[in-house]
Amino acid sequence: MDLGIAGRWALVCAASRGLGRGCAQALVREGVHVVVTARGEPALQATAAELRALNPAAEVRAVAGDITTPEGRAAALAACPQVDILVNNAGGPPPGDFRDWDRAAWLAALEANMLTPIELIRAVVDGMAERGWGRVVNITSAAVKAPIDSLGLSNGARSGLTGFVAGLARQPRLASRNVTINNLLPGPFDTDRLRATMAGAAQRSGQPLDEVMAARRQLNPARRFGDAAEFGAACAFLCSAQAGYITGQNLLLDGGAYPGTF
């Protein structure tokens, strides 16, 4: 299927690895020009080189910086001639016990996983509406649907973003102008973050990492972890011309792990 987005410009956050990288790859394959941003310059430049090789017809610009800061956001936005597609993404806050989190920990989580996406959305949606086309995809978490007790910081911040998007996406001045805003909720995907989490569990339990990973896979109905490429493909479809009637939705990609109907 031709997704009808060749020649569009996208800003993809936290794109040097993992799910953000998967989204950038899928968009570049469709002929989308991308601005990719992340904090680590070497990994970002390596990803940018890989993206250019995927599709020479797509322009790729790499902007190293912290998207959770005003300076980082300004630099990323300045590198993009116009933002037709925005993929919001940021690493999740650390797990732990809420009794150990002070106000600074909460503010950092809110800044990264709620306020930064909102700031970027605010910066681009009016321009999208004026042009009559726009796509915003927020990478949140399956924990929005089924909270994880040790991820309270993430549960709180990402749920706040979810509630905000639910109202904004349905505003006629955006929805009637072909501007959609949706959330992708990943379950367990084979990323550096998941491996780090599993490594910590292995260390605490004294079990080999391979055994811990295998046991975690068996808990999922799909009996596997997700792949960043298939996550990216789902993102690309939400950004497609064909997805203009999908907005304000929370789409779960978890291999069937969530047991509920709604």
What quaternary form is this?
A: single chain
Q: Record the strand order, biggest sheet.
A: 3-2-1-4-5-6-7
Overall pLDDT confidence: 95
Task: Enumerate how many helices there are, as a single number.
Answer: 9
Largest sheet: 7 strands, parallel
How far the N terminus sits from the C terminus, by CA atoms, comes to 29 Å
Give the low-pLDDT segments. Answer: none
- In helices, the fraction of residues equals 40-55%
Strand content: 5-15%
N-to-C SSE string, H for helix and E for strand: EHEHEHEHEHHEHHHE
Number of strands: 7
Outline type: globular
Which structural class fits the helix and strand makeup? alpha/beta
Radius of gyration: 18 Å
Description:
This protein is an alpha/beta fold and 262 residues long. The chain contains 9 helices and 7 strands; from the N terminus they run βαβαβαβαβααβαααβ. It has a 7-stranded parallel β-sheet with strand order 3-2-1-4-5-6-7, sandwiched between helices. Strand 2 (33-38), helix 2 and strand 3 form a beta-alpha-beta unit. The model has no long low-confidence stretch (mean pLDDT 95).
Give the secondary structure arrangement, pairings included.
Elements lengths: L8 E4 L5 H12 L3 E6 L2 H14 L5 E5 L5 H9 L6 E4 L14 H29 L2 E6 L12 H17 L3 H4 L3 E8 L5 H14 L3 H10 L9 H11 L11 E4 L9
Parallel strand pairs: 1-2, 1-4, 2-3, 4-5, 5-6, 6-7
